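U., I forgot to send this yesterday:
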Amino acid sequence: MLGFTGLVFVGYGNEQLYPALYSIQTDGVVSGNLRYSVTGDIVISDEHNCDLVPFAQTDVMNTFIQGINPELYNVVNDSLYKSLASNLDTYNDIIIANTEGEVNEELLETLKQDFKESIMVSMQNNIQSVLHNSHIQPTLQALRFLSKEDLAELAESLIYLTFLKRRTTSSLESVGGAIDVAIISKGDGFIWKKRKHYFEDKLNQHFFQNYFDQ
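Result:
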């Protein structure tokens, strides 16, 4: 979709003991119907008891969760692939140059591709295993025992870190400014922990007096 808007729905159903998250992307209405695609569907349960899901600019949060910057991971992965392919090409050339008689170059090329894919899959699996066991799983395990207040502060801190990273690089800023923080729980429902106003609270006490008197 081009020029899409992301929407995230999160909370509790009437009969749900645990929260659920549902995210979509939409880019408008076609023939009176909303055109959208589902991008996420997460339900917390006894088996899946914790999750940390970033949205919008996700690089900083993914670095926190995975223990490595996603862009750096892609660069390393791409460099390994190119280096491996180059070395295997060199080996094939050496084999052809130093083998007497006819060489089945098609077989060599097939073996090279199979060998390359096998090594890359093995390396990626090993890296993913290290990231999962050393970073992702310990982070999610720790989140299970945080209080609602600590979880809210963590979410706010990750958003602020994203803002700082954008300010110190040439990247486009789309995260920044005051951050609204809300907590949704089964017992208390939707609660604002922090909410920005377009005015100074202490200079407009009458607003809050009128609001709560209604």
